[in-house]
Amino acid sequence: MAAAPGLAAPSGPEPTYVIQPRHGLLRLDLKTIWDYRELLYFLVWRDVKVRYKQTAIGIAWVILQPLLTMIMFSLVFGRLAKIPSDGLPYPVFVYAALLPWTLFASSLSRGSDSVVGSANLISKIYFPRLILPLAAILSPLLDFAVAFVVLIGMIFWFGITPGWALLTVPLFTVLAVLAALAVGLWLSGLNVRYRDVGHAIPFLIQLWMFASPVAYPATMIPDRWRFIYGLNPMAGVIEGFRWALLGRKTPDFALIGISTLMVVALLIPALIYFRQTERTFADIV
Question: DSSP alpha helices (H): ranges in the chain?
Answer without folding.
Answer: 30-35, 37-51, 61-73, 90-112, 114-117, 119-124, 131-138, 141-157, 169-193, 196-210, 226-230, 233-246, 253-277, 281-284
